[in-house]
Write a structure and sequence with these properties.
Belongs to the SERF family. It comes from Actinidia chinensis var. chinensis. This is Chitin synthase. With 76 residues, the protein is mostly helical. The chain has one domain. The chain is 66% helix and 0% strand. The chain contains two helices and no strands. The longest helix has 25 residues. It is elongated.
Length: 76
């Protein structure tokens, strides 16, 4: 095998990777990687903790209103 074929083949694979990356970025709307929401890790933890507490409170309120306190029902 000639070295030019090896070189051209590797270039084609590289070009295909670049095209695939561009297509993937277009599908995701150009969001990209990372969490650039402008919050520090501490602020993010507080925000997430508050969201989890609200979710748990909503779930317990829903369970209490349906008469099932989160346990399994024994209805047959």
């Amino acid at each position: 095998m000639d070295w030019t074929w090896i070189f051209l083949d590797s270039m084609q694979r590289g070009n295909q990777r670049d095209r695939d990356r561009e297509r993937a970025q277009a599908r995701t709307g150009g969001k990209g990687k990372g969490k650039d929401d402008g919050l520090t890790p501490e602020q993010r933890r507080e925000r997430d903790g508050k969201a989890l507490q609200e979710k748990a409170a909503k779930k317990t309120a829903q369970a209490a209103s349906s008469g099932d306190a989160g346990g399994k029902s024994n209805k047959k």
